[in-house]
C-alpha cells in the first residue's frame, strides 16, 4: 500500500481541460505584444507605419547619441546630518499596526527615505517576522492617492482656519463620536480621553472590520493571548490564525516551533481544522474537514460535550469522525490542547472558552491579554443607529472608513448625505468613501511620518518614530485632537510625558533605548479592567446554538484575504498583485464555490453570478475551489473600493453588505441566493502558470508515522541506471563541476515550516524593485514576481488500487478528493543550478555562473531571446514584455513608478530592468556583496546570519535558511548535513541540474488513512 | 619568365606595405601605452598604506590594525601622522602628552580647553581656535589609534626605499605599464632598423638591376624580343591599373574608415577629459596639493560608503568660517547657506546606472590611491575626468591588480589556497572572481 499522492495545481489540471493542455504546451504567451497598442481599424496600415516610425526613430536615436551627453548635477546636502552618509542605509525601529495585525519593524532608509520594512528581531511578539501587508506598507507612504492638504468639502483649506471652524463646531455639538478601528496606542487613548474631557458628551467607538467582538464578550471583555507553541493538539473552528486571525505573524512563529522536526525530535503538534472556506490555516492542517457555517456551533458543541461532558448529547460526533477524533485528541492532550474559533458568535466562543478552561490549556493566557481587537459591534451599531436618527452632533472618523467596511455602511452613507450629523470630520489619510462625505478633512500622517506607541499585548510596548519628514501638508491625528482640545503640546512631548511613567531610571537614557529598540517591556495603559463575567453562561450558549435559525439554501462565508485584509490598503499594488495563498488569484475578489455545485449549475470558472442576501447583491465571477464545504460559497471582504485611488478602485465588489447583524454582532455568514448573469469575467490566477514539467518528485511529503519509523525513508531519491547499477543522478554528468573556494551560497527551504503566507513574495518585490503588471498581464501569464509560492493540491492514489480496481475506476476515484484535498506549499525561485540549463543556451552570455555558486543575470547584456526561460526546468525566469514604468497601459497598476514620489521606494542598489530583458531571482546578490564588503572592511570572514536574502529575512516561520555552504559552521551547512539522506531533496533531482536550493520534505502529523482522505 | 621578372616589383610593394603596417601598429601601440605610462606618475601622496603597519615593529599587531581602521574613519580627515593637516601631526604624541591626557582630549576636547588645561589651551590657540570634535570612542579604541600612529611614525620617509612594500604591489599599472612601454620602445627600434635595412636592400636591388640591364644592352647576341624586355620601362600606370593594387588599397582604405568609425562610435558617451566649469571655482590643486588636506576630510564617506560624498557647505565652513572669508568664491558658499539653496556641482564622473561601483571597496579594502583612477588630482586647478571609466578599463585593472590581502582575515584562507595551487601567478582581483558579471551588475 505504498502511497503516492498525485499533485495538481488547479482544477484545470486535474480535469485536463483543453485550455490547460494548450497552456501547458506553449508555456509562454508567445506573441509579440507590439500590436497590442493598435486598434483593429488600422491593423492593415500598421506595418508600413511601424517601419517608417522605426526608421525615424533610428535616425533620431543616432543623431541623439552623437549629441553631447546631458549635464548631470551632483547636489550635496546643504548641511549634512551627521548620521546620514550617501550610499549607506540607516535602520530605525518602528511599528506597523493598521487596525489588523501588529508588526514590530525596522525601517531601512537610504539618504533619508524609507525603502523597505524588515522585521524587528528584538520584538518578543513578532520576532523578526513580518506579514505581507506590513512589507507592503512602505509603498503606501508614497501613495499619490493620499490627501495632501487639509480640506473642507474637498477643497483646500488653511490649517488654522480649519482648526478654528472645527473648534467652534465642536463646542456646540452636543453628542460627539470618535469612530476608529481598534486603537492599541495607550497615549492615543489618553489623547482621546483628554479630548473627551474637553468636550463633554464625547464617546469613542471602536469597531473592527473582521470583528472579534464575540470572542471579547465570551471572555468577559478581554482577548486571550494565545501561545500555539504550548499546544500539542490544536483544534481550530474556522479560525485562520496563520493568515488573518488576530496576530498571524506571532501565531505562525509559535505554531511552527512545535512543527519543526529533525531525526532527534520526531514529534510535532497535530492540527485539526474545521472550516467553510479553504483558508491558509486549513491548508496547513493535518486534519481538515469542511463544514457549513451553520454546522460550526454543533461541531463545537460536540467537542464541548466530549471534553467537558456536562451538556446534553450531540449527534454531531456520530456524523463526523474527524470531530470525534479531535475531541479525543484534546482530551488526551489535556493542558497541551487548545481550541480556537474565528466565529464572531458569542455562544460559540463561550463554549470554546469553556473547553479551554476545562482542559486547563497552557496556550491560553487571560492574565496578559492581547489588545489587538477591541471593537464592540453592539456599541458601533447603536452609534450608527443614533447617527441615522440624527442624535449625534459631530462625528470624527479616525482612520476609519465605516461607509465601506461596516455592514451598515450604506445606512451611514445615507445619513451623512442627508446631513443627519452637523459636523463631520475625517482624519483619514485620503478622501475615501467616508472621508468624502465629511465636511472637514484633516488627514493624518502615514505611520512612517509619525510618533506613536503601541501595546499589542499587556506588558509589551512598542514605539513608532518618524523616519521621513512629512511628505504632504498633513498633521498627525493625535496633534489634531490635541489642538482641538486646546492642548498646545505636541504629541511627541505628550508621548514622552506618558512614557515617563513607564520607563524607570534615567528617563532620557531609557527613552533613547526604547526608541532605538522599538520595543520595551512595561505597560503604559492604566491598569487593566478586571476580567468581567462572560456575557453568556455555558447553558445559555448551548441553548443559543441549538436554537440558532437553520439557514436554508446556500450559505455564504465572508473571509479576509491574507494580502489585502480589510481593504484599508487597497490602493497598494503590491498587495493587489500578491496571489492569494490558496486560490492564487490576484486583483479582485470572486465567489469560491465547491466543484460539485459548479458542475450541477453548469458554471465554469469566470462565469459571473449574482449573489443576493439582505435585499442586496454583488456580482462576481465564480472560482471553483476544492475544499470548499458543500452547500457554501466564500467571498473575500476588502474589495470593491470606490474611493481608494487609481489602483484600488473598482477591483471586485464589496461583500460586507451581505453580512448579517444578529444580536448586535456582525455575523460573517448568511444564506444567499445565487443566479447566473450570463456574463463572464476572467480571474487573474497565477495558479497554472509556469507549470513545472510533469515529473516527480517536485514536492515531497510523508506522514509523521513514517518519519518516526525511519527518517531515511521519507524522501524518495531518484536514481539513474548506469552500467554500474543505479546511481545518484549527480554521479552521471557531462559537465565539469565548479569548485567553490570562497563562498558557496545556498538556501534550504523547510516545507514543514512554510505556511505559504506570501510574506517573502512581497519582501522580494520590495527589495528587488520587481514591477507590478496588472490583471490583464497576469492573465497573459506575464507576472514578474521573482519568488512565487507554488500551491499543490494532492489526491492520493494507491499503487495497488490500479491492480485491484482497475485504472479507470482509480482515476475516477481520484477526482473525489478535490472535495477536500491536501494542500502543500512550495516557495519557488531561481534554483541557482550548478549545471544550469539556462546558462548553456544564452547566445550572448548574459546569464553565467559565478565563483560563489550564483547564477548571474546581466541585464545590460541580455538581448531578450528568452532561450533561457525556455530551457529553465523550474520556470522561474521572467521576461520584461513592457516598460512597466513608462507605458501608459500600466499607469493604473504600476502607478508609483510613474511619479518621482513613488519612485522613492526603489532600492537604489538594484537596477530597474528595461523592456526586452530577462530577469530572475539573484539570491539578493546586492546583500551578499554588501555583507562581504563589510566583512572585508573589518578584516574578517562574514559571520553566518549577517548576509540574509530578503525572503529568508521576512519569513515569519524561518522556513527559509540562507547562508554560505562553504562555511562548515553555518546554519545551512549544519542543516544540510543533518538532513542529508533524510528530508533534504532537490526539485527534479533526476535531471541533474544540481540546484543550490534544497528543500526539506514536508511531514504531516496524520494517520495514514486521513492522509489519503 | 614573367613572374620572375616581376619579382623586384612585387618585392618593392611587399616592403612598402610592410612598412605601412609596422608604422601604423607602432603608432597604435604608442597610444595604447599612453595612459598606462601616465599612470606611473600619481599614487604617491595622501593616505598611508594600510598594510605598511605590518613592517613596523612597535605595538600589538591587532591593536594597530584596529587603530588603522579607526584612524581612517575618524581622525584622518584632520590629522596625519607625520605632517600637519588641519590638526597637528600625531608623530611623537605619546612623548608630548601622556595617555591620561590624550584620552579625555579625544573624548571631549572643548571640555579640556574650558577647564583651562594649559597645554589644551595652547594647542587650541595654535590651530586657529579650531575645535576638535568629540568622539565617542572607548579608551581601548583610543589606545589602539595611538598604537597605530606610533607605528606609523616616520613611515613616509622610509617608503620609497622599501621595494617590497605592498604599495608597490598595489600599483600594478605602474609596473605592467612600464613593461608595456619598454617593450614598445624595443619594438620600435627593431622596426626602424628593419625598415632601413629594407630600403637599403631595395635601392641596392634597383642599382643591380640597372647595372644588369646595361650589361645586357652591351651584348649583341640578343634578339628583338629580349631587347624588348630589357628596354621595357617601368610603367606607373600599370600599378594604378593593377587590380591587386586597387584591391589592396581599397581594402586598406575601407578598413581604415571602418576602424575610425568604430573608434568614434565607441567614444560616444565617453567623457574622458571632461572638464566642465563648476559653479564655484574650487581648486583641488590648492587644497589637496599645496595644503595637503586629506581627501577624506571633505569626501567624508570615501572609506566607508559606495559614494565618496561631495562635501556639504558645513564642511567648507569648518575652515572658511575664518579663512579667506572675503573671497568672492567663498561668498558663494555663504550665499548658498543663507538662501538655503544647495550648491549644484556639475557631476564629472558618470557611471551608467547599470554599473555598481563602491568607493570603500577600492579605498578601504583594496588600498587603492585616489589618484589611480582620478589622476593627479592634487595638480588639477579644475577637475577633469582622468580615466575613461569604460568597462574595459575596469576589467583590465581587475585582471592585473593583485588583491590587497595582507593583514585581512577575509583573505587568509584564499591566499593559502591560491598559493598552494597556483603560487607562481599573482592572486589578482579577477582570480578571486572580480570580473564576474554580478560583481558590478545587479
UniProtKB/TrEMBL annotation, chain A:
Pfam families associated with the record: Fer4_11
4Fe-4S ferredoxin-type domain residues are 745-775, 821-852, 853-882
Q: Which CDD domains match?
A: MopB_CT_PHLH, PsrB
Q: Which NCBIfam families match?
A: MoCo_extend_TAT
From the Swiss-Prot or TrEMBL record, give the protein name.
4Fe-4S dicluster domain-containing protein
Source organism of this protein record: Hymenobacter metallilatus
Automatic annotation (TrEMBL), chain B:
Q: Which Pfam families match?
A: Cytochrom_C, Cytochrom_CIII
Which keywords does this chain's UniProt record carry?
A: Electron transport, Heme, Iron, Membrane, Metal-binding, Signal, Transmembrane, Transmembrane helix, Transport
Identify the species of origin.
Hymenobacter metallilatus
List the GO molecular function terms. electron transfer activity; heme binding; metal ion binding
Q: Which PROSITE patterns match?
A: CYTC
Recorded protein name is: C-type cytochrome
Annotated region (Disordered) at: 153-179
Q: Where on the tree of life does the source sit, at the highest rank?
A: Bacteria
Q: Which CDD domains match?
A: Cytochrom_C3
Q: Does the keyword Kinase apply?
A: no
* SUPFAM superfamilies from the UniProt entry: Cytochrome c, Multiheme cytochromes
The cross-references to InterPro entries, in alphabetical order and at most eight, read: Cyt_c-like_dom, Cyt_c-like_dom_sf, Cyt_c_III_dom, Multihaem_cyt_sf
Domain Cytochrome c residue range list: 62-153
Question: So which residues are the signal peptide here?
Answer: 1-28
- State where composition is biased (Basic and acidic residues): 155-170
Gene3D superfamilies, per the entry: Cytochrome c-like domain, Cytochrome C3
Ranges that cross the membrane: 189-212, 243-262
Amino acid at each position: 500500500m505504498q502511497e503516492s499522492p498525485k499533485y495538481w495545481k488547479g482544477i484545470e489540471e486535474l480535469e485536463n481541460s483543453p485550455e490547460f493542455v494548450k497552456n501547458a504546451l506553449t508555456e509562454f504567451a508567445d506573441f509579440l505584444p507590439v500590436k497590442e497598442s493598435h486598434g483593429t481599424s488600422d491593423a492593415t496600415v500598421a506595418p508600413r507605419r511601424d517601419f517608417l516610425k522605426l526608421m525615424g526613430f533610428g535616425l533620431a536615436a543616432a543623431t541623439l547619441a552623437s549629441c553631447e551627453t546631458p549635464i548631470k548635477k551632483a547636489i550635496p546636502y546643504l548641511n549634512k546630518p551627521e548620521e546620514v552618509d550617501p550610499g549607506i542605509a540607516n535602520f530605525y525601529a518602528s511599528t506597523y499596526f493598521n487596525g489588523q495585525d501588529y508588526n514590530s519593524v525596522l525601517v531601512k532608509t537610504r539618504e533619508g527615505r524609507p525603502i523597505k520594512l524588515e522585521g524587528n528581531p528584538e520584538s518578543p511578539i513578532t520576532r523578526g517576522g513580518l506579514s505581507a501587508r506590513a512589507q507592503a506598507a512602505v509603498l503606501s507612504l508614497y501613495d499619490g492617492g493620499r490627501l495632501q492638504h487639509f480640506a473642507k468639502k474637498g477643497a483646500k483649506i488653511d490649517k488654522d482656519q480649519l482648526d478654528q471652524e472645527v473648534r467652534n463646531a465642536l463646542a456646540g455639538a452636543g453628542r460627539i463620536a470618535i469612530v476608529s478601528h481598534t486603537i492599541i496606542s495607550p497615549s492615543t487613548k489618553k489623547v482621546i480621553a483628554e479630548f473627551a474631557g474637553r468636550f463633554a458628551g464625547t464617546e469613542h467607538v471602536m469597531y473592527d472590520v473582521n470583528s472579534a467582538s464575540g470572542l471579547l464578550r465570551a471572555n468577559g471583555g478581554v482577548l486571550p493571548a494565545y501561545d500555539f507553541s504550548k499546544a500539542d493538539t490544536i483544534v481550530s473552528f474556522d479560525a485562520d490564525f496563520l493568515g488573518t486571525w488576530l496576530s498571524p505573524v506571532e501565531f505562525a512563529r509559535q505554531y511552527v516551533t512545535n512543527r519543526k522536526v529533525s531525526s532527534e525530535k520526531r514529534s510535532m503538534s497535530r492540527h485539526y481544522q474545521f472550516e467553510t472556506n479553504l483558508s491558509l490555516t486549513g491548508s496547513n492542517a493535518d486534519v481538515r474537514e469542511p463544514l457549513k457555517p451553520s454546522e460550526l456551533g454543533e461541531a463545537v458543541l460536540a467537542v464541548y460535550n466530549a471534553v467537558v461532558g456536562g451538556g446534553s448529547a450531540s449527534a454531531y460526533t456520530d456524523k463526523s469522525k474527524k470531530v470525534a477524533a479531535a475531541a479525543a485528541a484534546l482530551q488526551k492532550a489535556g493542558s497541551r490542547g487548545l481550541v480556537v474559533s474565528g466565529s464572531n458568535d458569542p455562544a460559540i466562543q463561550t463554549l470554546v472558552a469553556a473547553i479551554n478552561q476545562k482542559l486547563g490549556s497552557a496556550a491560553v493566557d487571560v492574565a496578559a491579554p492581547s489588545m489587538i481587537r477591541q471593537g464592540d459591534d453592539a456599541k458601533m451599531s447603536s452609534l450608527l443607529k443614533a447617527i441615522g436618527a440624527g442624535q449625534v452632533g459631530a462625528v470624527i472618523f479616525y482612520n476609519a472608513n465605516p461607509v465601506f467596511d461596516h455592514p451598515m455602511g450604506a445606512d451611514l452613507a445615507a445619513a451623512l448625505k442627508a446631513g443627519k450629523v452637523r459636523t463631520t470630520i475625517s482624519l483619514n489619510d485620503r478622501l475615501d468613501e467616508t472621508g468624502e462625505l465629511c465636511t472637514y478633512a484633516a488627514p493624518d500622517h502615514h505611520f512612517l511620518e509619525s510618533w506613536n506607541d503601541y501595546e499589542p499585548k499587556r506588558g509589551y510596548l512598542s514605539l513608532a518614530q518618524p523616519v521621513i519628514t512629512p511628505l504632504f501638508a498633513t498633521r498627525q491625528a493625535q496633534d489634531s485632537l490635541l489642538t482641538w482640545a486646546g492642548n498646545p503640546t505636541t504629541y511627541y512631548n505628550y508621548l514622552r510625558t506618558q512614557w515617563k511613567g513607564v520607563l524607570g531610571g534615567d528617563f532620557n537614557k531609557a527613552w533613547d533605548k526604547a526608541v532605538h529598540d522599538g520595543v520595551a517591556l512595561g505597560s503604559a495603559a492604566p491598569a487593566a479592567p478586571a476580567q468581567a463575567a462572560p456575557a453568556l453562561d455555558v447553558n445559555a450558549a448551548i441553548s443559543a446554538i441549538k436554537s440558532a435559525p437553520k439557514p436554508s439554501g446556500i450559505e455564504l462565508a465572508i473571509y479576509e484575504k491574507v494580502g489585502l485584509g480589510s481593504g484599508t490598503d487597497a490602493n497598494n499594488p503590491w498587495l493587489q498583485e500578491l496571489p492569494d495563498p490558496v486560490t492564487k488569484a490576484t486583483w479582485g475578489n470572486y465567489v469560491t464555490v465547491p466543484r460539485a455545485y459548479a458542475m450541477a449549475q453548469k458554471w465554469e470558472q469566470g462565469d459571473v453570478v449574482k449573489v443576493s442576501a439582505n435585499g442586496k447583491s454583488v456580482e462576481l465571477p465564480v472560482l471553483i475551489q476544492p475544499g470548499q464545504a458543500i452547500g457554501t460559497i466564500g467571498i473575500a471582504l476588502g474589495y470593491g473600493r470606490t474611493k481608494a485611488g487609481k489602483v484600488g478602485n473598482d477591483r471586485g465588489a464589496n461583500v460586507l453588505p451581505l453580512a448579517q447583524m444578529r444580536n448586535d454582532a456582525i455575523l460573517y455568514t448568511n444564506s444567499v441566493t445565487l443566479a447566473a448573469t450570463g456574463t463572464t469575467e476572467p480571474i487573474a490566477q497565477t495558479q497554472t502558470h509556469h507549470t513545472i514539467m510533469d515529473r516527480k518528485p517536485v514536492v515531497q511529503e510523508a506522514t509523521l508515522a513514517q518519519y518516526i519509523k525511519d527518517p531515511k525513508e521519507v524522501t524518495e531519491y531518484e536514481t539513474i541506471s548506469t552500467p554500474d547499477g543505479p546511481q545518484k543522478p549527480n554521479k552521471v554528468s557531462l559537465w565539469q563541476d565548479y569548485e567553490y573556494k570562497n563562498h558557496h551560497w545556498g538556501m534550504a527551504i523547510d516545507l514543514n515550516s512554510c505556511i505559504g503566507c506570501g510574506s517573502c513574495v512581497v519582501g522580494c518585490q520590495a527589495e528587488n524593485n520587481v514591477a507590478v503588471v496588472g490583471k490583464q498581464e497576469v492573465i497573459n501569464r506575464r507576472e514578474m514576481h521573482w519568488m512565487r509560492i507554488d500551491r499543490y493540491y494532492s489526491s492520493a492514489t494507491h499503487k495497488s488500487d490500479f491492480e485491484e480496481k482497475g485504472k479507470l475506476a482509480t482515476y475516477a476515484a481520484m477526482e473525489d478528493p478535490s472535495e477536500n484535498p491536501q494542500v502543500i506549499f512550495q516557495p519557488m525561485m531561481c534554483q541557482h543550478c550548478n549545471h544550469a540549463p539556462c546558462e548553456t543556451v544564452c547566445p550572448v552570455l548574459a546569464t553565467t555562473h559565478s565563483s560563489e555558486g550564483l547564477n548571474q543575470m546581466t541585464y545590460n547584456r541580455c538581448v531578450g531571446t528568452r532561450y533561457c526561460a525556455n530551457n529553465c526546468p523550474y520556470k522561474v525566469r521572467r521576461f520584461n514584455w513592457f516598460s512597466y514604468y513608462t507605458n501608459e497601459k500600466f499607469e493604473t497598476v504600476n502607478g508609483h513608478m510613474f511619479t518621482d514620489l513613488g519612485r522613492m521606494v526603489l532600492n537604489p542598489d538594484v537596477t530597474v530592468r528595461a523592456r526586452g530583458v530577462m530577469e530572475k531571482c539573484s539570491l539578493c546578490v546586492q546583500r551578499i556583496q554588501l555583507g562581504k564588503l563589510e566583512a572585508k572592511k573589518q578584516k574578517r570572514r562574514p559571520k553566518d546570519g549577517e548576509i540574509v536574502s530578503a525572503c529568508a529575512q521576512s519569513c515569519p516561520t524561518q522556513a527559509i535558511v540562507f547562508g554560505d555552504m562553504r562555511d562548515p559552521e553555518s546554519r545551512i551547512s549544519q542543516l544540510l548535513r543533518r538532513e542529508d539522506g533524510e528530508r533534504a531533496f532537490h526539485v527534479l533531482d533526476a535531471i541533474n541540474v544540481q540546484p543550490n536550493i534544497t528543500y526539506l520534505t514536508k511531514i504531516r502529523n496524520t494517520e495514514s488513512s486521513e492522509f489519503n482522505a | 619568365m614573367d613572374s620572375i621578372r616581376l619579382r623586384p616589383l612585387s618585392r618593392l610593394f611587399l616592403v612598402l606595405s610592410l612598412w605601412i603596417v609596422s608604422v601604423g601598429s607602432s603608432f597604435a601601440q604608442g597610444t595604447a601605452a599612453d595612459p598606462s605610462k601616465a599612470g606611473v606618475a600619481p599614487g604617491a601622496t595622501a593616505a598611508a598604506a594600510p598594510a605598511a603597519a605590518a613592517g613596523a615593529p612597535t605595538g600589538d599587531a591587532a591593536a594597530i590594525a584596529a587603530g588603522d581602521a579607526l584612524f581612517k574613519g575618524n581622525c584622518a580627515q584632520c590629522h596625519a601622522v607625520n605632517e600637519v593637516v588641519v590638526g597637528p601631526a600625531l608623530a611623537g604624541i605619546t612623548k608630548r602628552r601622556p595617555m591620561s591626557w590624550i584620552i579625555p582630549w579625544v573624548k571631549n576636547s572643548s571640555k579640556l580647553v574650558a577647564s583651562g588645561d594649559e597645554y589644551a589651551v595652547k594647542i587650541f590657540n595654535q590651530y586657529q581656535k579650531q575645535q576638535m570634535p568629540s568622539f565617542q570612542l572607548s579608551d581601548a579604541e583610543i589606545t589602539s589609534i595611538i598604537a597605530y600612529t606610533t607605528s606609523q611614525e616616520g613611515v613616509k620617509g622610509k617608503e620609497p626605499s622599501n621595494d617590497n612594500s605592498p604599495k608597490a604591489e598595489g600599483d600594478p599599472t605602474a609596473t605592467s605599464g612600464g613593461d608595456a612601454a619598454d617593450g614598445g620602445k624595443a619594438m620600435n627600434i627593431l622596426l626602424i632598423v628593419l625598415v632601413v635595412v629594407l630600403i637599403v636592400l631595395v635601392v641596392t636591388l634597383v642599382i643591380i638591376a640597372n647595372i644588369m640591364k646595361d650589361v645586357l644592352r652591351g651584348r649583341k647576341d640578343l634578339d628583338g624580343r629580349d631587347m624588348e624586355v630589357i628596354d621595357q620601362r617601368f610603367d606607373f600606370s600599370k600599378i594604378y591599373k593593377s587590380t591587386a593594387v586597387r584591391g589592396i588599397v581599397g581594402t586598406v582604405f575601407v578598413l581604415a574608415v571602418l576602424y575610425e568609425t568604430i573608434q568614434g562610435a565607441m567614444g560616444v558617451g565617453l567623457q574622458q577629459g571632461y572638464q566642465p566649469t563648476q559653479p564655484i571655482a574650487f581648486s583641488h590643486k590648492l587644497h589637496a596639493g599645496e595644503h595637503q588636506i586629506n581627501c577624506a576630510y571633505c569626501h567624508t564617506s570615501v572609506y566607508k560608503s559606495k559614494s565618496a560624498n561631495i562635501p556639504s557647505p558645513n564642511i567648507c565652513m569648518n575652515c572658511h568660517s575664518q579663512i579667506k572669508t572675503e573671497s568672492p568664491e567663498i561668498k558663494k558658499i555663504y550665499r548658498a547657506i543663507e538662501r538655503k539653496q544647495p550648491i549644484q556641482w556639475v557631476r564629472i564622473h558618470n557611471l551608467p546606472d547599470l554599473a555598481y561601483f563602491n568607493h570603500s571597496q577600492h579605498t578601504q579594502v583594496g588600498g587603492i590611491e585616489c589618484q589611480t583612477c582620478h589622476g593627479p588630482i592634487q595638480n588639477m586647478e579644475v577637475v577633469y575626468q582622468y580615466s575613461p571609466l569604460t568597462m574595459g578599463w575596469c576589467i583590465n585593472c581587475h585582471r592585473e591588480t593583485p588583491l590587497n590581502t595582507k593583514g585581512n582575515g577575509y583573505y587568509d584562507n584564499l591566499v593559502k589556497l591560491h598559493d598552494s595551487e597556483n603560487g607562481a601567478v599573482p592572486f589578482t582581483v579577477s582570480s578571486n572572481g572580480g570580473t564576474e558579471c554580478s560583481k558590478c551588475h545587479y
